[in-house]
């Protein structure tokens, strides 16, 4: 007697021709039901915007109208500060959705360009306003925040559920080697500044040369990460969330729209920094190194910590350490090159304290990640180092 046929209903989007039968049975009679394109598109957009964090989007219109209404600088700063938090999450989702429709290399370049788009946009606005110290502080703070605060919280969170967390040490080592190269590129102009007879023009030229080579190194790192040694960066223990159901047109519109809104909010935020610093006694160094990086990386912070707590340590490292590598090798040199375009003296010559903090941070994180496993004590050490740097930054004179 022939086995009975079982009817199995498959839903397929009209925007593609793919469906997956996950039943694992061979005696299934398949019936394909076409789902309208707009239905899958609506679901993809809902997935992006239905988030508790997006309640903060109410601050976006307030932040946009505050400068035009000439509100108090503290209100302008606060509204735009909070508004950028959900916008950064939406911008990241749009980048992932658009990258899903491209090839591996193009997707990697998209993530490199827009993965830290908030930091890049804020740097452009600050360079345009001539706030070089804020730009340098924001870039340094983003690296420190990812390597010390985010990674420390992720390791500590993982330690609450697992006595020891294992990860791919080779991929982490490749990222940290890039961090060492970036630290050297900042250390050299800073040391050159102390040489007797060195001029600002020479430091600026040296910084631009180093920036061009850093961009080249980052492109080579992308080839290494995406093609020749991609197995070193695979996310073991879990799958990363994707927004690939969104169409290419939809993701492009979302990416362009969110970028424009982030640019507008960043302009209001940057333009109010001077008044907030003077009126409320907030050091510019503290704003740049501590406050601004928290805004741009809030969504990534949450992703890294929750992934680590679920046991997906490779994914958590990819978010925290990978993001800091993007900033050090790509965003920092781009900021110098933007200064070249805007005729602004943006250099790689940071303050001695900033340079020392970066070198010490890279050394400490390299030691923590060198063995391929971590425990909660490592997280405590990283977070303590970040708190010490934040405390000292508050007392650094202008």
Automatic annotation (TrEMBL):
Domain of life of the source: Eukaryota
An annotated GO BP: intracellular calcium ion homeostasis
Keywords: Antiport, Calcium, Calcium transport, Ion transport, Membrane, Transmembrane, Transmembrane helix, Transport
Keyword NAD in record: no
Transmembrane domains' residue ranges: 44-66, 73-94, 106-127, 139-161, 173-192, 204-227, 282-299, 319-341, 376-396
Assigned GO CC terms: endomembrane system; vacuolar membrane
Membrane topology recorded in Swiss-Prot or TrEMBL: Multi-pass membrane protein
Subcellular location: Endomembrane system
Coiled coil spans: none
Residue span, Sodium/calcium exchanger membrane region domain: 73-226, 251-394
GO molecular function: calcium:proton antiporter activity
Primary site of residence: membrane
InterPro entries assigned to the protein according to its UniProt record, in alphabetical order: CaH_exchang, CAX-like, NaCa_Exmemb, NCX_ion-bd_dom_sf
Keyword DNA-binding appears in the UniProt entry: no
Family: Belongs to the Ca(2+):cation antiporter (CaCA) (TC 2.A.19) family.
UniProt name for this protein: Sodium/calcium exchanger membrane region domain-containing protein
Biological source species: Effrenium voratum
